[in-house]
Design a protein that fits this description.
Layout lengths: L2 E2 L7 E2 L1 H14 L5 E9 L5 E9 L4 E6 L2 E6 L3 H4 L3 E6 L4 E6 L5 E2 L5 E3 L1
Parallel strand pairs: 1-5, 2-7, 3-6
Antiparallel strand pairs: 3-4, 4-10, 5-6, 7-8, 9-10
Length: about 120
């Protein structure tokens, strides 16, 4: 399996998002072979929902490294994610991970699902 450097990762992760990911990663650090899975799955009000969770690598994943965290993205899902920016907001109206996806034809009101 090919390992790609962080400059080639198909998504952009803001500093705020990386800070939150690092904090969450420290809570999960007692598990072996864990990395951050970024992906999509069918569902949500617009057709696809974003996946952002800690998981183990599968044979279908492309592996990237960002800071000290392994990033897993299923090879078939990368087309939906290419160029997406993942940010973390802490405001009163919006707290959590936010996705800005240039491949989305439409997004739902909550911003966690999209159509391609």
């Amino acid at each position: 399996m090919q390992t790609i450097t962080e400059t080639q990762i198909p998504v952009n992760i803001t500093a705020a998002a990386m800070q939150e990911i690092h904090q969450l990663y420290l809570k999960e650090n007692n598990k072996e072979n864990i990395g951050l899975r970024i992906g999509v799955e069918g569902g949500g009000c617009a057709g696809f929902s974003y996946v952002l969770k800690f998981d183990t690598k599968t044979e279908h994943d492309q592996v990237y490294f960002l800071d000290d965290i392994e990033i897993f993205i299923n090879k078939t899902e990368q087309i939906y994610l290419f160029g997406t920016t993942i940010d973390f907001k802490t405001g009163l109206e919006n707290r959590g991970f936010v996705y800005e996806n240039p491949n989305a034809k439409s997004t739902c009101g909550c911003g966690t699902s999209f159509s391609a």
